[in-house]
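>> received
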Amino acid sequence: MFTGIIEEVGKVSAFKKTGNFAVLQIECCKILDDITIGDSVSVNGVCLTVTKCGEKSFNVDISYETLEKSSLAYTSYGDPLNLERALTLSRRLGGHLVSGHVDCLAKILEIKKESGAYRLRTQYSSDIDRYVAVKGSISLDGISLTVSDIPAERVCEVAVIPHTFENTVLKYKKAGDYLNVEVDMIARYIEKLLKKETKADKLKESILKMQQLEDFL
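>> returned
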């Protein structure tokens, strides 16, 4: 589990892809003092397991499913990566609960600086449209952001403060690039609960009708 507050921007020092499997080596500094083999790390919003630790880098394995659903499949040497260690019970939850399970990719339509901040507009899959709401949370490349506007179907805008922009991979992005998207998990749980309630209501209604029919007969 993560918060969506990026701790460090690392750099790809090696990327070896063999068929539907890949090994990624990430050069970094800050987070190395507190990670060990087996730990979970968010890499551009993808939860990955540390398989090797070095003095200046660590390795993670990437499965075929992750390669299919995330932008990590297009990683190359020198690319910057958002990094966040897993949440601990003693840390403040500064962003929102992020699982590191990518829902889809979003295409950047526009990045524009205005009024001292940056407006980021993205287009995403219709599969997640119902989970995106104004003032709701969304994770883009592992960054916890708040939806500021939904100008069209499958399109949302977020406002990015200068600190976040300068200290994440967003400063390297441009229109046409893709970001890993994870919707707010609370929205998914609410939807599931509502579906269960709807099914229960329909069952109650069906039973009531059967009882009324039996009374009539």
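>> The first helix runs from residue 64 to 69.
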